Amino acid sequence: MKIETKTVQFTAPLYLESGRILEPYSICYETYGVLNADKSNVILICHALSGSHHAAGVYEGERKAGWWDGLIGEGKAIDTQKYFVISTNVIGSCFGSTSPMSPNYPSQEPYRLKFPVITIKDMVHAQMHLLSELGIYHLRAIVGGSMGGMQALQFGVDYPNLADDIISLASTYATRPWTIAFNKVAVEAIRRDPRFCHGNYEVGAFEEEGLDGLAIGRIAGHISYLSPDSMDDKFGRNYVNNDGLFELFGRYEVERYMEYNTNNFSRIFDPLSYLYIVKAINTFNLSRGYDSLHDAILRIKAKVHLISFSSDYLFFPSEMDHIANMMERNGQEYSYLPVESDYGHDAFLVELDKFESHIKDVLE
Asked: What is the pTM of this model?
């Protein structure tokens, strides 16, 4: 599979939903497969909170594959022998696109808290500039899960003629208080960590030791991505062998797992990026800028394919049901696949066997 990673610099201003302007800015993106002559085989992949442009394949000298490698590749559901796949890193993220720790032009000092608040609509708007730069004006499909699913739906509403199909997994039409409350744990843990220094830390400050506040906040997030059944299956009530049961800080296996994963995460993910992306998720509302959710969804001309997961406690299946019911009443083209799963929200990243054939059928 042919993989190319590039960054495009934009000097034209990006007008944001808040009224502010981002100028200049850059977008990092990755492509897989080959673009055909009439550019009719393009699929856009949108990532979730902690994702990046690296959705598939393995970089030379590394072992870890892209976050959706099981779905994207030669002979897979999103077949790179047929399709030219573009995966972008959203603005605000810390993996190559313009973010809070990027230089605040013309200064070389990072934006830090001077970076403007970014919304899902802004992320989509920036990706439209990228597609235009690449000379691509129509997409075979847009696919994304969680925050990526939000972007896919936002594309459908804001740019009705862009794509033939939109596939949104484990997502919603508007972020509800339950999810915002989970995110609040991370926000406050980061803000109250003394080493966060009110956002005035140096570039690369946490690469070696991580930031405790981000690690703690990520634990809350990680709990919301799983489910009670998946934790029972994965950990049971197993205790760490070399920790004493009656030691105060002795750990169950689930505790050790949370420590290990979240500590590693806090070394590679920038805390300011985390705060800004969480803000984008919290403020997501498909109806904003339109008279109602009904009016927003009525704008969609693409065929919409919704996939929910029964044990998703972050974006509940009922939220996807609501979109499906509204599209049915409107007479719009859609499909809805409710997946039975014990894994939780992260099933869209893990249990590919439960929906990959559906995606393949949609694309074919």
From this structure: 0.97
